[in-house]
Write a structure and sequence with these properties.
The protein is an alpha+beta fold. It is built from one helix and three strands.
């Protein structure tokens, strides 16, 4: 898994729950990072942000694409 700047990873071990903030982006990776306790770390869940799509937004996106 490629980690990018300012991402937060949380330990999945219920007794540890350590959090790490990425300072420098990684170049490549094949799995989630591991905590010092040995458990896998994952990004915490963030609910999606919904917004209304209007015709103005669609016109702006098409103009940028061309």
């Amino acid at each position: 898994m490629i980690m990018t700047e300012h991402q937060i990873f949380r330990c999945q071990n219920q007794s540890c729950r350590c959090e790490v903030r990425v300072i420098k982006s990684s170049i490549e990776g094949s799995s989630n990072p591991r905590c010092c306790c040995g458990a896998e770390m994952k990004k915490p869940y963030m609910a999606p942000v919904l917004r209304e799509v209007t015709s103005e937004v669609l016109v702006g996106q098409r103009a940028e694409d061309n």
